[in-house]
Amino acid sequence: MEKKKKAAVLGSTGSVGTQALEALTNTDMEIALLTGGQNISLLAKQICTFRPALAAVPTKEAADRLREMLPESSTRILGGGNAVCEGIQECGADHIIHAIAGMAGIPPALAAADTGARIAMANKEAIIAAGHLIYDRLAKSGGELIPVDSEHSAIFQCLTASDAANSHGPADPAKIRRIILTASGGPFFGKTSAELAAVTPQMALAHPTWKMGKKITIDSATLMNKGFEWIDRKSVV
Q1: Taking phi first (over 0 means left), then psi (-120 to 50 degrees means alpha), and beta for anything else, what does residue 80 get?
Q2: Which run of H or of E encompasses 53?
Q3: Residue 120: what are its φ and ψ, rounded to 5°?
């Protein structure tokens, strides 16, 4: 009988993480590791539902709260600054969904790259700041990296279909003429220069489609997120 595949979801309480768990319910993969940040209540519910072998949070205080909330759980709870990386190293996941936001996602990305697993990467900052290190580690471990951010996933699929890239390393720039990144425009799409001169932070936070954290919402409204995506794209091509 074929061994059951294992999955880890890093940042399972965020938007991407919760969607990843929804998708995983339609597979026969075992959830081996869940990690969360401040939303301990949701993480506790996820642990009850998916019963991972391991769960990790960034502080010992959060770990103690989880243990108090789940006194009868068989899930081993890790807490502290290195807890997420320890969980990655121990869980034996074949697939790692990396949905931890910001620069905090860099150490877990490096740890994931060392495991030889397939990484579904939703963290731009890790690729921008440490993409070369991640790919070096993937080359040594035999792991893979698949971008799951919408624009980069679409670009990756186009590049792999044309044999300009694969999941084991950066794309071949000699096989690429140009890449076009699209932008929704957020709440200010179609506004005139005069209208843009009068915008407020509250208006920028009112994204018409997505409910996200404040930073990514502001980055979307100002198109700073497109700049990050461009740097991200440059780091892997």
Answers
A1: left
A2: none
A3: -95, 105
Q: Is 169 in contact with 138 (CB distance < 8 Å)?
A: yes
Dihedral (Cα; 94, 99, 100, 105), 10-degree rounding:
60
pLDDT at 236: 53
> CB within 8 A of 172, min separation 6: which ones?
164, 165
Whole-angstrom distance, CA of residue 53 vs CA of residue 41? 18
**Mean pLDDT for each 10-residue chunk of the chain (237 residues)?**
89 94 94 95 97 97 96 96 97 97 93 97 88 93 90 82 80 82 78 90 86 82 80 59
Instruction: Check residue 233 and give its pLDDT.
Output: 61
Amino acid at 10: L
Q: Are 93 and 73 in contact (CB under 8 A)?
A: no
Tokens, residue 167: 């999941």
Domain topology for 6-148: Rossmann fold (3.40.50)
Query: Coil, helix or strand for 120?
Result: strand
Q: Look at residue 235 in the predicted model and tell me its pLDDT.
A: 53
Determine the pLDDT at residue 221: 86
Query: What is the structure's pLDDT at 168?
Result: 80
Domain ranges in the chain are: 6-148, 153-237
Residues in contact with 128: Cβ distance below 8 Å, sequence separation at least 6, in sequence order: 228, 231, 232, 235
Q: What's the gap between Cα 220 and its chain centre?
A: 17
Taking residue 165's Cβ as centre, other Cβ atoms within 10 Å add up to: 22
Q: Which of 92, 87, 71 is nearest to 10 (CA)?
A: 87
